[in-house]
Structures are given as C-alpha cells and as structure tokens.
Design goal:
Layout lengths: L8 E5 L2 H10 L4 E3 L9 E5 L9 E5 L19 E4 L3 H13 L3 E6 L3 E7 L5 E7 L7 H5 L9 H8 L14
Parallel strand pairs: 1-4, 5-8
Antiparallel strand pairs: 2-3, 3-4, 6-7, 7-8
C-alpha cells in the first residue's frame, strides 16, 4: 500500500462552533458545505491551499465531554502534523498560535522545524516545515536523533524565509 499523504483527520470536539472558529481564525481553515442533510453537530474544513476534499472533520459530542487522556492514561493518537511551505509561514503561524494562547511548544528535529499547538479541547497538533532534500546535510541528518530548541530567526537566515520546504521529500522536485 503506497501512501501519498494524510488525506484528512476527524476529531471529536466538545463545542463545534468554538472549534470551527479556532481552526478558521487561527489556522486559516475554511468550512466546506458537505454536512449531510439532517445531520447536526459536524463540520468539514479545508486547509488553505489544500487540494483535498476536506482536511479536517469535526464531530461535536457535547460540552460535558471530558478532555482526552490519550498518552497519559489511555492509548490514543498523540498528534497530527500539517506541513507548511516556508519558514516565514511557520513564523507567522507561531505568532497566531501564541496570540490565541494555543502555542504549546516548538522544536528542531534537524530535518524538520516544528511548532506544537493545542486546540480548544486540548487536542495537540504539529505544524512543520521540512528541510528540502537538496539542503539536507550531515548536521541536519544527525540532528534527527535529538530534540533541539527551535530558533526560527536562525533557521530563516540559514535556509531563507521563502525557501519552499519539503521539496524532494514531500513535494516532488
């Protein structure tokens, strides 16, 4: 089975309107009118620039729902990672997440530069920029074995803020 990419994710949320507003206002997703007639409590969203039918499905289970204990007390999904094209876009996303109180952290994995955020239900996600294949060097490859502190300004100086990431890795050259 050859997998080309993650097509979409579906999340259970406690408050649909709040979650739609977060993904729309902070991450730029747009609502796609595809909820079946007569079906309530669901929304389908598409990420900016995506060619997927939808990238995120949200299903409301009610405000009384408890927060996920996956990874702390139960098995479950830790996070999904969405890729951005440039380090400038990653930096702008960091600012939006911080302004929304949703930036949970950042890290440098050598070949990837990552932000971690939490949605209104505390579900974690990753926003990542991949070093292009033609820019991978021994230092970046060796750094995959550690988690370092992300210095976005330094990485933008090193690779360029508008350098398209993932080229030759997740984006065909």
């Amino acid at each position: 089975m050859g997998i080309h990419r993650l097509n979409h994710a579906v999340l259970y949320v406690s408050d649909l309107e709040r979650s739609v507003a977060f993904y729309r206002d902070v991450l730029g997703f747009r609502a796609i009118p595809m909820t079946p007639d007569g079906f309530r409590g669901a929304a389908f969203l598409q990420a900016p620039g995506s060619t997927n039918d939808h990238d995120l499905g949200l299903f409301e289970i009610g405000r009384a729902a408890g927060r996920s204990t996956a990874g702390r007390a139960t098995v479950g999904l830790y996070h999904l990672a969405w890729e951005v094209d440039t380090l400038d876009e990653l930096a702008a996303t960091a600012q939006r997440l911080a302004a929304a109180g949703a930036l949970a952290g950042s890290s440098d994995h050598g070949t990837t530069k990552s932000l971690y955020g939490k949605d209104p239900d505390g579900l974690e996600f990753e926003i990542v920029w991949l070093v292009p294949a033609d820019r991978l060097d021994d230092a970046a490859l060796a750094a995959r074995k550690r988690i370092g502190r992300l210095d976005l300004d330094r990485e933008r100086q090193r690779y360029g803020g508008q350098t398209r990431g993932g080229v030759g890795i997740s984006v065909p050259a």
